[in-house]
Structures are given as structure tokens and as C-alpha cells.
Amino acid sequence: MSVADTQEPGARQGDSLTGLGAVLLSQRGSMVLWVPVCLGTGIGWYFSLATEPDAPFWISICLSGVGFVVLSRLVPLSVAPLCMAMALVIAGMGLAKAHTEWRSAPLLGFRYYGPIEGQVVGIDRSASDAVRLTLAGVRLDRLSPGRTPLHVRVSLHGDQPLAAILPGDHVMLTGHLSPPAGPAEPGGFDFQRHAYFLGIGAVGYTRTPVLRSAPASVDGLGHWVFVQRMTISTAVQRILPGETGAFAAAILTGDRSAMGQGTLQALRDSNLAHLLAISGLHMGLLTGVVFTAVRAVGAAIPPVALRWPLKKIAAVAAVAAGAAYLALSGGNVATERAFIMASVFFGAVMLDRRALTLRAVAIAATIVLVLRPDALTGPGFQMSFAATTALVAVFRVVRTVDLGFLPKWARPVLFLIISSLVAGLATAPFAAAHFNRIAHYGLIANLSSVPLMGILVMPAAVLAACLAPFGLAWVGLALMALGLDWILWVAQTVAAQEGSVGMVVSPGSVVLPLLTLGALWGVLWRGTGRVLGLPVVVAAFVVWIMTERPAVLVADSGGLIGWNGPAGRVLSRATGNGFVARVWLENDGDPTSQEDAAARPGFEDSGSLVSLDVEGWHILQVRGSRALEELVGCGGADVLIVTTPDEKQRTCEVFDVSRLRDSGSLAFMIASNGELLIVTAASRSGLRPWTGKRDPQAGAEIVLRRTLDQ
């Protein structure tokens, strides 16, 4: 037998079927599944960089990408996929860079207090249950348009005439603004980057009344859609008062501003929060209802059923309904992702192809990454594609199993149980990593609620939309209310059970990439080699379990310190910096409140001075300028945390409020040799477009070594 006889049809001369080449050729036909994986690797690489690459780097990387593409046409066909994989990784980096430049906008570089004017383009609620307004067309006192952020977000405190504020209104107020805050701890969730890609250049609050300076106006399609969304939301809540109406408005329009924090927490603790977000489930149910309804109506008309391609017409109608739902919901990232997946699904139906395949999931993921590269790092992208990939992979196996022994009525029940179990298991690690929570009774809650979403809630929503032009939307909404009341009852009942929620430690930065790559290898790779993904997944969980939390954490304001003592994290204050305290405790996997954590022993608090000794290192917090003036030297401290500017030269390491603005929050790690490593949030976030201008030296990591007399 000649060499040519052993080659695949179309293989290039000299192509070897041994070793790596043979392995890669065995994967032909499934290479497209790795396209989003390679793109995602490049995107993740870009976002992990400590500094923004310069022009020579991008020139060299672009030339390398072109070189890999050319090389893929010259090397043997069996190894060409490796060249294309490298080209796709580089393309992912380029996509992330291009998207970052496209989203570039002015960031507020200082703390501002004064008049704020703008147009209301967003209304929601903060974690503290305060109403927040997102303003566009912003004008700030004594700040040129070129330095003014495109959007600012302002929380409203005190008595506010909220009923008088309408979507699209031009408003004016007096408030405090500051740049978007950095991570609550080094390596934590980066709100600066999140706000950058949302187009928000400043955040703040006001305690003064918000005044209308001009009535609502429509400045473009986006504003018009927002006004329509909020009008529909108000109408829904007028018909269905209370939490039920707020839930219905959230499902129909994406407006959660009326949802109470108690309801939101119950939905989270019962693992039903995904029913609130307009994502894959809602888009799938809505488009599925429309698809089924159009086919059913067409089938009831013999001339239409016999002459027209009903299935394809129904698919077009479903995509159109999904597009309308996307616009109505505000077009957020989660809904965009769901619409793309639904469009790929029904596009396959129009082309007479199988819709539920890993290839369709890969195409949808690729489109999302091209349009929104920053979505890769968010929980929405990770959880939705984890669930979809797992469901398609599992049901590909289930289809091969003979279920003839089950009665017909039992098969949908079995599929529902399998779907909920698989989706829950696939998303659980990502939910735990991002939110530090595991809902122990989530499967029960989902089995009790999800079917009702498909059977009653979403069909009733479609009915309400169809009857709205005739003034009969209340009929559909009344039916929706029956299902939503049940779901809310399930959420509150499950959340109230003892042990319903478990807390987990926040994982290190390598855990999720390892876990994802290992799981994807096991699902996408063909043949027995897929088992190699299992040790990678196990390694990710081992690293997670061995995660060591910082010995000491310091807030970027200098006003809060947390020590990881034997009884858990001990906080220096029972009030103040509440958001930061909650994040620290959640990342520790500690369900304790800030007040209880502050009651733990560990700090010596004299009012203006708070001291802490950790393995021979003395940390002193100085509160207020008077206490700082009275302090002699370093007061015996190795590290001084000061809540006011400090102009004096001291022999210890000093982090005053000015330095903390550049360094961000701090994490103290004690090495086995006794050295004290001070990690800054700035050192982990790096110098990137979303971090603003700052002194690079202020954010550098610091290592303190003991002197001979210590």
C-alpha cells in the first residue's frame, strides 16, 4: 500500500497520518466547534494583560496572525488546524482590542460635587434598593464636553418625586460623582471595566430633589424604545400591582426597578433568578410559542397547509417575534445572546438542518464573541453557554437510548428532570464562582416553576401582546399572574428552608479557565481522548479547594480593614463601607453580617486608632486628621493606613487616602518565610483604558521583610 493510499481525500503531498497529524485528522468535521474556544482564548488573554499593548506589539501580532493563515495553506493538511487555531487566538485579541477602542469614552478623573444635567435613559435599582437614573447628554459645571462622560449613573436618596420623573425626561440635580470604583479587593470583580463597556464614565448619588428641566423627548431609536419599554412596564404594574406586577414587568420589558430586594433575594436563594432575567429560557419559550402557534393556525387552513412551507414561515415569524422582544427588553447582553442563539436555531430550521447541535451552539457563541467580546468575562455568557452546551451534549446521548418502556406521558417529565439537572450542574460552578452561593434546593424549585413558565406564563404574555391593541391586555396578564404568583410562592418557600443556601470561597483566577477548558475538551473532542478533560476539571476543583484568602484586606477608602482570623473575617467597623464588607465576606464564603463580623475579637479600637497584630506584623489605622497630627512617627506600626492625606515622611509603609486612590484596595499575604506581601488592586487590574490615569508606582506590589530586631 502506498503513502497516497493512506491519505484522506484532498490531503496534501507529504501529509503524515502518524502522531499529531493522525490525531488532528480524526477530528475533521468538528473543528468548527473549536472556533469560539480559540476566539475566547484570545479575548481572555487580552483582558488578562497588566498593561495595554503598544503599537509595535499589535503590528507584530497582526503579522503573526496573517503568517499563521498563510502557513496553514503550506503545511500538511493534518496539522493546518493548529495554525488556524493560533490565527483565531490572535483574532480574538484583535476583536477585544477593537471593541475596547470602539467603547472608548471620557472617564471622570476626580471627585465632583455640583449641578448635573442630562436625559434619563435608564432606570433601575442598586443593591441597597435605591432607585438609580442613568443619564445621557450629560452636562457638568466647569467641565468641557470633551472631558464629560457620555453617561453617568446617579442613585437617588431621600424623598424624591419619582412619579414625576418619566423616561426620556431632561433632569437636573445637585449630586456627588466619582470615577467608577475599582475592585473591592485585588483580583475581585472589576466594576471599572464593567462600567467602561456599559459606557458609564461616572457614578454617584444625590440627596436633593431631581427636577425636570424639559419634558421627555425622543433622540433616536434607542431613546424611543426605552420610553416604550417603561410605558409598557408602568401599564403592566397598573394592572397587576405589587410584586406580581413587578415580576411581570421584568419578564416583559426587562425593567426590574419595581422589584423589592426581598423578592430578588428569594429568587436568588432558590436558584430561580434566571426566570427574572430575559435570557435563553424566555427567548426560547416565546419564540417556541410563536413558532407552534403559527404552524397550528396554518395547519388548520388546508390550502395554506398544502401549498405553503409552514415550518419555514413559522420559523421566520418566531425570529421576528424574538427581534421585537429583544428591542422591547432594552437589548442587553443576555437578551442579545439569547436572540442570536434562537436565530441560529430557527435559521437551521429554514435551511432544513438539524437545529439542536453543538455546531449551532458554536456558531451562536462565535457571533456573540464577535459582537461583544467583553461578554466572555461575565457570568451571563459563561452560564448560558455552559447550560446550552451541556444540554445539547447530553440529549445527543439520550436520543440513542430506547425509552419505549416508558409511557408517553412520562417521557416529557423525564426530559424535564434531565434538563433541569443537567443545566443546574453545568451552571453551578460558574454561579458559585461569581456569586459565592449554591442553592441546595434549586432543582426542586426549578422543577416546580420552569414548566409553568412554558405552559402558562409565556403563552399568556403572547396573548397579552396580541390583545393589547384592543385594550384587552388584562386578560393575558391575569393568566400570567396565576403562574407568577405560584413561582414567587415557590421561591419564598424554598428560600425560607434551613440550609437552602451554601456559601463557597471565591476561586483564584486560574480556576474558571481550567474548568472551562477541561469541560469543553470532554464535550467537543471526539474519541477516547476526551477523558483527558477530566483530570483538568479535577485539577481546577483542587485549586479551588486550596484557595487561600488574604490575611488582611483594606478598602480603597482606608476606612475598613478585615482580618482573616480563626473565627472568620474580623472587620474593623460595624457600619460604613457596607458594600465592600459584604463582598469580602461573600468571597470568604462567610454568610455573617458586617455587624456580627465586627463583633469578633481581633482589633484594638480606641476610636481614632485601630491596631492589629498579624504574625508579628503591626498594622495601625488612623482615623481623622487630628489623630494623624498627634501620631508620633509610625506609632510602632509596620504599615500605616490613614483615612486622610499624610504629608509627613515616615519610616513605615504608609497608605494614606491619596495613595489608596491610585493603588486601590489592598490584600496582605504572609509568606512562609515571614515576609509580608502587599498586593494592590491596581497591580492586578493593570494600566488599561478603563482604569483611568494614575501613578504606576502607586499600584506596585510591596514586599516587607523583617529586620534583625523583629
Task: Looking at this protein, list some descriptive labels.
alpha+beta; disordered N terminus; 5 domains; globular; 710 residues; OB fold (Dihydrolipoamide Acetyltransferase, E2P); 19 strands; 5-stranded mixed barrel
Draw up the topology in text.
Layout: H1 20-25, H2 35-48, H3 55-72, H4 80-102, E1 112-125, E2 131-140, E3 151-156, E4 170-178, H5 191-198, E5 200-206, E6 211-214, H6 221-239, H7 242-253, H8 261-269, H9 280-299, H10 302-307, H11 310-328, H12 333-350, H13 358-371, H14 379-398, H15 410-435, E7 437-439, H16 442-467, H17 473-495, E8 501-503, H18 511-524, H19 533-545, E9 552-554, E10 561-565, E11 568-571, H20 578-587, H21 594-599, E12 604-605, E13 609-614, E14 617-622, H22 625-630, E15 639-642, E16 653-655, H23 657-663, E17 666-670, E18 676-680, H24 681-685, E19 702-704
Parallel strand pairs: 3-5, 14-15, 15-16
Antiparallel strand pairs: 1-2, 1-4, 2-3, 4-5, 4-6, 7-8, 9-10, 9-17, 10-11, 12-13, 13-14, 17-18, 18-19
Helix pairs in contact: 2-4, 2-13, 3-4, 6-7, 7-17, 8-17, 9-11, 9-12, 9-16, 11-12, 12-13, 14-15, 15-16, 16-17, 18-19
What does this structure look like?
It contains 24 helices and 19 strands. It has 710 residues and is α+β, with helices and mostly antiparallel strands. It has 5 domains: 4-102, no CATH class; 112-217, OB fold (Dihydrolipoamide Acetyltransferase, E2P), CATH 2.40.50; 232-503, no CATH class; 511-545, no CATH class; 552-704, no CATH class. The chain has a 6-stranded antiparallel β-sheet with strand order 11-10-9-17-18-19. Strands 1-2-3-5-4 form a 5-stranded mixed barrel.
